[in-house]
Amino acid sequence: MELKKGYKQTEVGMIPEDWELKDLSDVVDFLDEQRRPIKSNERKSGIYPYYGASGIIDFVNDYIFDEELILLGEDGENILSRNLPLAFRVNGKVWVNNHAHVLRPKKEINTFFLTEYLESLDYSLLNSGTAQPKLNKKVCSNIKVNFPPLPEQQAIAQVLSDTDALIQALEEKLAKKRAIKQGAMQRLLTPGEGWEERKLGEIGSFKNGINKSKNDFGFGYPFVNLMDIFGENSIDGKKGLGLINSNKIERQLYDLKKGDVLFIRSSVKPSGVGLTSLVEEDLSDTVFSGFIIRFRDDGFLDNGFKKYCFYTTDFRNRLMDSSTVSANTNINQVALNQLRLAYPKLREEQTRIATILSDMDAEIAQLEEQLAKYRRVKTGMMQELLTGRIRLV
């Protein structure tokens, strides 16, 4: 393969000629011998962060380290899933348990640069665990690190740091908007003058979903399953659905019309039971799972209002109190029929409330999309900057 001018071939691919390639153990000192775990019942509350494999897990009254370091998660599912940072920078007085490697970069290494480099790696092939994923010290010591001269490390670190600042600002703005919406829901959905409260069984009817054998899945007609509505407050025909072998009578019995509300009947997580999703439009020839209960009201509730009225703290608490626990947490039609729901008598008031909350949701969705874009941009920048395909110096 012809080498690009100014680049050299290494065991990790082509890198700029003035970059170096070394083992991690050559560019950091491992301070693992100094870390110490403290059992939760033996920790004394304080001001110093207590770190584990994926970040801060507590605050204690003493510290082990007092300098700028890198922590690299040693074990846990996050090594493979990467739902949380695996490599993160700490600075100042901290305590670290035995679930994170403690790395002190040497003088020729910028701490922020190396943290980002380590965070960018795929550790799935380095996993040495059996019962749970693990990165042992020997494996980590041999991780290959390609790095430029210190000035370029610092330039790369600054660019990525600036991007992190933008991402953090968006995260904070998003958290604030979500909190404002939560407060608005609490205020707008608190019963007042002109409201009434009735049992759900008095304003509509419930129906359990269809149950089929495993051989009936994967072909036939559209099918709304549990995961299609989990975490979604509405569903429409644009969502790609699975298929199930259903006949004409079944499609009539388990049909889905605009305004139907789907309740999760059974959930592994207790917090998931009874969550709802509004059917935004008639779903032709579509049925729904036996893990779902359909609620069809008799014209008492505005469709937009249905997205929010089942998520008040009071309603959720009463629903949870009505659920049963076995292997999963469950709610049934009998319990749902007896739950009382408060709502404004005037449909115009229901629509007004729904419009306010829907506008807030749209603003939150826009921020979420912007945040996802910034994160994608940073990922792309890391791929280019940390491999030397783009030079800053």
Structural write-up:
This protein is an alpha+beta fold and 393 residues long. The chain folds into three domains: 20-147, DNA methylase specificity domains (Adenine-n6-DNA-methyltransferase TaqI, Chain A, domain 2, Alpha-Beta Complex); 148-194 and 346-393, Helix Hairpins, CATH 1.10.287; 195-342, DNA methylase specificity domains (Adenine-n6-DNA-methyltransferase TaqI, Chain A, domain 2, Alpha-Beta Complex), CATH 3.90.220. Helices cover 35% and strands 26% of the residues. The protein contains twelve helices and 25 strands. The protein has helices spanning 24-27, 78-81, 111-119, 137-141, 150-188, 200-203, 226-229, 248-253, 303-309, 313-322, 333-338, 347-385; strands at 7-10, 13-16, 20-23, 28-30, 45-52, 55-60, 65-66, 69-73, 87-90, 93-96, 100-105, 144-147, 195-199, 204-208, 217-224, 234-235, 242-244, 261-264, 266-267, 276-279, 287-288, 292-297, 324-325, 329-330, 340-344. The strands form eight sheets. It has a five-stranded mixed sheet. A four-stranded antiparallel sheet has the order 4-11-8-9. The mean pLDDT is 93.
Which regions contain 5 or more consecutive residues with pLDDT less than 50? none
Largest beta sheet: strand ordering: 14-22-18-20-16
The separation of the N and C termini measures 26 Å
CATH topology of the largest domain: Adenine-n6-DNA-methyltransferase TaqI, Chain A, domain 2
Average pLDDT rating: 93
Q: How big is the Rg? A: 27 Å
SS summary, helix count: 12
Counting structural domains, the number is 3
Query: Level of helix content?
Result: 25-40%
Beta-strand portion reads: 25-35%
Strand elements, count: 25
Structural class: alpha+beta
Largest sheet: 5 strands, mixed
